[in-house]
Structure formats: structure tokens, C-alpha cells
Please model this.
Amino acid sequence: MSIEKAAQILKRARYPLFLSGAGISAESGIPTFRGKEGLWREHRAEATGGRESRAATMASMRAEDLATPEAFQRDPALVWQWYNWRKRLISEKKPNPAHFAIRDIAHKLPNLLCATQNVDGFHALAGLEGVLEMHGNIFRTRCLGCSDVRENRGEIDPETLCVACNQAALRPDVVWFGEALPQNILHTIYERLHVCDAIIVVGTSGSVYPAAGFAVEVRRREGYVIEINIDETHRPYANDVYIRAKAGEALPQICALI
Ligand code: OAD
Model:
């Protein structure tokens, strides 16, 4: 029933918006940030190995403690260790039926604007064109000196110098806590939010702004909010359509009805 309603709303929407979070990649085998198998826990177990002092430090850490400019300034090797581990993990996995379904939905609804908080690049890998990667992409580096950005799929040694200027070190080209999101991406999303009559939010806990505010804004303007999430304790943004199901199961069904 709610699947049908979701399909109907999306089909009728003039300015629809899609937003995904870590939950959409969970079925690919990528741990989410705040679930039971949260990222920091995995990292602690796998990457810190026998180094007791570092393991002890990691025990009290969350993603928010590693994904910050301060953490990088304090200990770039530790932060790169975390990102190298995540890059390795993502490289071994692939997009799942949810990523392919949203690609197909976008083909059926050419006016659908797609944004993601994920840095894994899976939407693009699944063939979704023009997706706005709000938090950057883990497979790119940015020079701390000249700001040169380039694709860099391999592991990064924290000592590596930028190939463009040969003077400064590299950081992941992702948005860290406390940093501004890319201006052009935000601008495009807010332009859509001003007219948006339906948003579909998939696999996000809604704990990180500005993304957490998008559905609230659409609702405030009396647009529809469709949400897909497996969490029984999750408080939906609105009661329009709340689908408690795995993204990889719900999205293909919605797609089939559009
Ligand atoms: P979270 O880990 O906070 O939330 C993931 C959500 O996905 C949870 O609400 C889960 O219930 C849900 N979920 C898990 N598996 C699912 C499935 N198969 N189908 C549907 N839903 C599922 O991830 P985000 O909300 O994306 O930012 O986190 C937002 C930001 O916080 C991230 O982009 C990252 C993080 O720290 C930065 O690094 C700046």
C-alpha cells in the first residue's frame, strides 16, 4: 500500500528530490555510521590490530571524532588509516539493487534531482547520472596547499606529496564535521527545495545537517515526504509515507510501479 502510494506521489511530483544516506549501501556490505555495526567499531577491531594504546584511544571514538579537521591536524596518519581502510572495504563491494533501482527511477522521472550523503561513489557506479555528492567522494584527494583535486583510488601514505605542486600533503576530498558543504551543490539543492513537492529519503538517520533538514523543509512547504528505513526506533520526518523496509527491497518495487 505505501509502496503504491510512494510510486503515485513520485509519478505526480513536478519537482521531486531524492536523498540517500549510509543505509542505502548497507546491503552492499558497507557498515553504516550509527547502526549496531557502526563504522568506528569495525575500524577499531580490524585496523588497530595489536597496538594497544591506539586501540584504547579508538574505543572512545566515533566517526565524528575522526572525520574532523582537528583530528586530521592532530594525527593525519590515524585519519588516513581510517580512510584507507574504508577505501579498501568499499573497493571490494559493489552497488546493490537499491542503487540500480534509483538509477531506473531517475530514467523514468527525468526531473528527479538526486543527492547523497555517501562518499562511496556507488550511485555513479550504478549509472545514476548527475548525483550530487554532498559529502564528497572517498576516492578523490585534495592537496592541502594548491587544492588540486584528483581521483586517487589507491591507499594513501600520509607523507605523499601532491603531484601538481609537489609541496604539500593530501587529504581525502570529503566534507568533515565543522566544514562547509560545496557551495554549488548546496545551491542546487536549495533551489530545488524551494519548489520541491515530494522528497524521498532513503537510509539516513537524520542526524547530520543540512541533509537532516531537507525533509522538514519539504513538509513545511506542504510537499510529500516518503521515507525508507529499517530502524524500528527511527522517528519518521512525516507520516505521509513511511516504508519500514530494506532499501534494496522497497526501491525496486516502487520503480516497477512508476
Ligand atoms: P547513519 O549511519 O547515521 O544512518 C543510517 C540509517 O540507515 C539508519 O537510520 C539505519 O536504520 C538505516 N538503514 C540501515 N540499513 C538500511 C537498509 N538496508 N535500508 C534502509 N535503511 C537502512 O548514516 P547517515 O544518516 O548517512 O558524514 O549519516 C550521515 C552522515 O554522518 C554521513 O554522511 C557521515 C556521517 O558521519 C560525514 O562524514 C560528514
In short: Residues 76-91 form the longest helix (16 residues). Residues 21-23, 26-27, 32-35, 63, 67, 117, 135, 175, 177, 203-205, 207-208, 228-231, 234, 246-247 surround 2'-O-acetyl adenosine-5-diphosphoribose (CB under 6 Å). The chain has a mean pLDDT of 90.
